[in-house]
Design goal:
Layout: E1 2-6, H1 10-21, E2 25-29, E3 46-47, H2 60-67, E4 75-77, H3 83-94, H4 100-126, E5 133-134, E6 137-141, H5 144-159, E7 164-167, H6 169-175, E8 188-192, E9 196-197, H7 200-213, E10 217-219, E11 223-230, E12 233-240, E13 246-249, E14 253-256, H8 262-266, E15 276-286, E16 297-300, E17 305-310, E18 313-322, H9 331-344, E19 355-363, E20 370-373, E21 379-383, H10 389-404
Parallel strand pairs: 1-2, 1-14, 2-10, 4-18, 6-16, 14-21
Antiparallel strand pairs: 3-9, 5-9, 6-8, 7-8, 11-12, 12-13, 15-18, 15-19, 16-17, 17-18, 20-21
This protein binds flavin-adenine dinucleotide.
The site of flavin-adenine dinucleotide has 41 residues, from helix 1, strand 11, strand 15, strand 19 and helix 10.
Length: 417
């Protein structure tokens, strides 16, 4: 069967890889000149079965409200927002009701664990070096209220078999000596030994190379302008090339892996798709003293930022901005994040030469991605991975390839269709 995968982010490339392994003829289309040029370019590096928790939690509405009055709040929502954003926000608030967290976290943990195992397998099978840093992820807390709140989620995760354990300050410093200068600001943490980090861009570009060698065709610099439906099927994808000419790509099946832009193509087909762009930022700090920089990944709960060691750099990422499709870089936000990094890790990072980046997380209100069949027979979705797409890509790609090939995917998950 000929399958067209639309989008060459980490999700599209992983899907194409597995489809090719199943013996299909695969063509990948993207408007950029290479893979992983949007959300998969420089996200936080966390690969975590336990970080796969949704954002919709009981204290999220309070944080949203605060953000209306604080431009530098970790979460930001603009009152001038478009209608679609209000609809998304209303659905998101519904997911914050008590009981929904447990409901939403279970499938995310299951898909994340499945995905991490496949990612490790791919790395070693193909010799991909994505600057992987094993050794766990440590969440740090600066006040008792935050630590207390984290216990609830830690318990939910433990019930699902995730080994997240509470650690005292002494053990935190043993796990990550780079925290010594801020010892007095810490009240405790929790640690998940099986989690790790890696560079999504390095992985995606390497996997795309392997896929190409295996026979996957990549069509870059091609904008997908619409999907053409005929008699209940997708007859083709209309592409606009750099020469200004349109042509029609035909295939037996189409997989939409367009990240935050998915609704732009599904809307005209009347397929509801509650994926909204949620902007976030990352900063890449060169290391001044690599031996004294963090070796394991950290999340700083109070500041809502994460740090991951990627080779000779430390990547900090965070901020949640509901601001439409704008990827504009906010200098005030950069300054605030640099100040937070300086406070936590005062002497090991090169603060002057940090590179700043923004990306759009393709987010659903519940945090659960849309993976599976659409209501059109030969149209499949693999999108809406929000803040966990790097973690979930290998697994949701494998699962979607199973569905296209007529098999039942392994993990327990609410697949579409
Ligand atoms: C600041 C930030 C931090 C993050 N941290 C983490 C983390 O620590 N761990 C984690 O697991 N995840 C993290 N994520 C989430 C993760 O990066 C995303 O979920 C993931 O990259 C989404 O991959 P994707 O392939 O679905 O989308 P994308 O990478 O955005 O790919 C979509 C592709 O579709 C193409 N496209 C769109 N429209 C068209 C069109 N009309 N025609 C042709 N091509 C088109 C785009 O060019 C793009 O290449 C983070 C994200 C951000 C922004």
């Amino acid at each position: 069967m000929k399958v067209a995968v639309l989008g060459s982010g980490v999700v599209g490339v992983a899907t194409a890889w597995w489809l090719k392994q199943d013996g299909h003829e695969v063509v990948v289309v993207d408007r950029h000149t290479g893979p992983a040029r949007e959300a998969s370019r420089a996200p936080g590096g966390l690969l975590s079965a336990a970080y796969g928790e949704p954002w919709a939690t009981r204290d999220a509405p309070q944080q949203l409200l605060k953000s209306l009055f604080d431009d530098n709040a970790p979460i930001g929502f603009r009152l001038r927002a478009r209608r679609g954003q209000w609809v998304w926000a209303a659905q998101y608030l519904r997911e914050c009701w008590p009981g929904r967290l447990e409901h939403n976290v279970r499938p995310l943990v299951q898909l994340s664990a499945y995905s991490l195992a496949l990612l490790r397998q791919l790395r070693s099978q193909l010799g991909i070096d994505d600057a992987a840093q094993q050794g766990g992820i440590l969440n740090i807390y600066r006040n008792a209220a935050d630590l207390e709140r984290s216990q609830n989620l830690a318990q939910v995760l433990r019930n699902l078999g995730v080994d997240r354990r509470i650690v005292g300050v002494d053990e935190m410093l043993e796990l990550e000596p780079a925290l010594a200068p801020v010892r007095r600001r810490l009240v405790g943490g929790d640690f998940t030994a099986n989690d790790e980090s890696g560079d999504a861009w390095r992985f995606t570009t390497a996997l795309a190379d392997h896929a190409q060698q295996a026979g996957v065709q990549f069509l870059y610099s091609q904008l997908v302008t619409r999907l053409v439906a005929h008699e209940g099927r997708i007859a083709g994808a209309e592409l606009l090339g750099p020469d200004g000419l349109y042509h029609m790509l035909q295939a037996d099946a189409f997989v939409v892996a367009l990240g935050a832009y998915t609704p732009c193509l599904l809307g005209p087909l009347g397929i509801p798709c509650h994926v909204w762009p949620v902007k976030g930022y990352s900063l890449n700090f060169p290391l001044i003293e690599p031996d004294r920089a963090p070796k394991i990944s950290l999340t700083d709960y109070s500041h809502k930022v994460v740090y991951s060691r990627l080779g000779d750099q430390l990547r900090m990422s965070g901020r949640v901005r509901l601001d439409g499709y704008s990827r504009a870089l906010d200098p005030a936000c950069k300054a605030a994040m640099v100040a937070q990094a300086r406070q936590l890790l005062p002497s090991v990072l090169d603060f002057e030469n940090a590179s700043f980046w923004s990306g759009l997380r393709p987010s659903t209100p519940s945090g659960i991605p849309l993976v599976g069949r659409s209501r059109i027979a030969n149209l499949f979705l693999n999108t809406g991975h929000g803040s966990s797409g790097w973690t979930l890509a290998a697994g949701s790609g494998r699962a979607l390839a199973d569905i296209v090939s007529g098999r039942i995917p392994e993990p327990e998950f609410p697949f579409l269709g």
